[in-house]
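Reopening this one. Same input as before:
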Amino acid sequence: MRNFIKIAPFIIAFTVVSCKKDQKADQLVVQEENVVEAPTSNASVIDAPVVDAQKEMIETAQSKPLTNIALSESHFDFGKIKKGDQKEHIYEITNTGANPLIISQVKPGCGCTVPDYTKEPILPGKKGKITLKFNSSDFDGMVNKQAEVFANVEKTPIVLSFSADIQP
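Same output, byte for byte:
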């Protein structure tokens, strides 16, 4: 009994310390869940500065009077191409709304894709172009890439994508 009385304070202290550590661990899990559930566009988990930059691009694009668009296509398949080939595809965009369409930015998913687009306002009923140039040097096999188009439309960014089967 004497041995138990001598050991009891250590057992109590250990239990209290253990509970506190578990509570902190639970709190960390809750905080991680909040980060994962933060509103994002197409990414599952991204850094706060990236989210802020994207929000700013959307606000800038939508600061002009909104309009409507029609795309010739939102996805293009290059098919089989040889590794190292540089390919490009032009997506046609038509302003179907009543206000001028202003493309403020085209943001590719990675450095292998270079965008070019109509910089001047596209009047109602007129067409503009978005060109995506792809460098296949660093890839093998099936590849899917995308670019986000920020414009003065309700649902921005508009996602354009392409795929290719890169052969050695």
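So the earlier flakiness isn't reproducible anymore. For the record, The radius of gyration is 26 Å.
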